[in-house]
Amino acid sequence: MRDWNLRRLRERYKLATAAPRPDGVFESRWTTVDGVRLHCRATREDPAGRTPVLLVHGLTVSHRYLMPLAARLAERHPVRALDMPGFGLSGDPAATPDVAALAGWIASWIKAVDEGPVAVLGNSFGAQVATALAAGHPDLVRCLILVGPTMDPSAPTKLRQTWRWVRGLPHEDPGQFPVLLRDLADAGLKRAWRTFGIALDDRIERRLPDVRAPVLIARGAKETVAPQSWVRQLDRVLPRAETAVVPGAPHDANYTSPDELAALVFPFLEAELGE
Fold this sequence. Notes:
This protein has a single domain (6-268), classed as Alpha/Beta hydrolase fold, catalytic domain (Rossmann fold, 3-Layer(aba) Sandwich), CATH 3.40.50. It contains eleven helices and eight strands. The chain is an alpha/beta fold.
């Protein structure tokens, strides 16, 4: 068990739960896309001449658990943490979208706010959506960071994937758990369960050869959901990729280990964006 600092836990929780209120760095923005009102947590003042970094959340969660990393990335880049349709503070679509539909919604949002092309960072299921965005809309994505990408086919059932996640919980920031419960309440159990099935059926490795943007694949050193063997498999099929291990980090490195993750992301962005 990590040595948790109470002040640090409170700061992360405050960042995660601030929306829709503005704080010193971020504000909430809404954009209607295909009839659905999408929520984005965005930096209020953007560094000039820098490519925006779009953060894509994972399964049943929202922008909230991305905010500790967002705060670090905002030191150098404009940051946008988007709630996908049906999650967080975004509106509900008529049906539960699959991976391709979610990527299409994000593509339409990028065009609507006129901020592309962007750097995209996806955690867990968000990595699946991010790769679909890059493969289907290459003009909108400059580079990709995949953090703990799912779904490893060696654990092909909901039970086995859930057990992997449960095994990693002792390494996660305990302040994250009320945030995750709030996200689950926003999404609803039915949408969460259906999206779990969609994520499990999606074969990310089959579309990776079509991703032309440079990619960084990162996994936590204490990761239980995305093992190193799975990362190596993804690395082999990507045309332009590199891998990294986030020291001491679990699956949700963006919440639990934002400093360590940012230390890997910044050099990658600098090298690929030239900024």
